[in-house]
């Protein structure tokens, strides 16, 4: 294992921050796996899981069991970690720009990439072309000059991930059950991980509209594919998923150990780590389209009383929460329209009218446009 420190652009005089990455099995011919945690800096369960995973990878590396390369970034957002304003931890948005740390990731333009590879595209080797594309992406990212600390963080993360076969982005939600987001294309490869993690919500979307870290490589691949002649084959893009390690306050050794071990089992099952993969538990719930998940909105302001626990399996018409108005005595009950799992809810107990309150999975897609929140 070796440790790499990538200095970020210094924002103000006398301050510096590094992005620290841990590299296991570097230079091995096998697959490259990239794992990062807490890109939204206030999502601590992910960071604890990554720390436990690091301990396990150190053991496995020392035992000579690495068959591929794993790059682990347990603290993916040192900028956000420092954003404490009037006692509040602001880890989701960059304080200077207001941008969500996990939206609108910038990638090189598809046309420029196709031109960069030029006459080297091969007409009979899809895997070779994928390597060419990944190398061109890394090359162009390497030529980019970040203008500020935020851009330098994004660039450093993208450089780690751009030539990876598998990208896992570890997050958590507000109050939630273990769930994950991935694309229909990645889902067959991610399913073993969902099973080892015991995920009871799997949300599928090719393009959620947010250009989040796990989606951008496949989106770029689609654009490049569309520009290439039909007789130039291109291997599949990387396999990518965003894992939501329950709610922000679910920070304990038991969950972190279980989740880290699930990732290790997934890596063994993929052949990245030598060994016999443990038996895969059955998937708790079938994957559902992200466009089918119902976003519950508070129709009025008031005090929130949740009537459904996170992880509850609900039927259409089941009450999810009440909103109490102590001035008028009105009690407004909100029910779900879906049959599905109540996989996440907000942590606040007082809401304004129009506030997003939680989500229930649904088998039938009905939403269009941007599918994820701010
Ligand atoms: Zn997040």
UniProtKB/TrEMBL annotation:
Pfam families: AstE_AspA_cat. Keywords: Hydrolase, Metal-binding, Zinc. InterPro entries: AstE_AspA_cat, N-alpha-Ac-DABA_deacetylase. SUPFAM superfamilies: Zn-dependent exopeptidases. Residues 30-199 form the Succinylglutamate desuccinylase/Aspartoacylase catalytic domain. Its cofactor is Zn(2+). One of its GO terms (molecular function) is metal ion binding. This is Succinylglutamate desuccinylase/aspartoacylase family protein. The lineage of its organism: Bacteria, Pseudomonadati, Pseudomonadota, Betaproteobacteria, Burkholderiales.
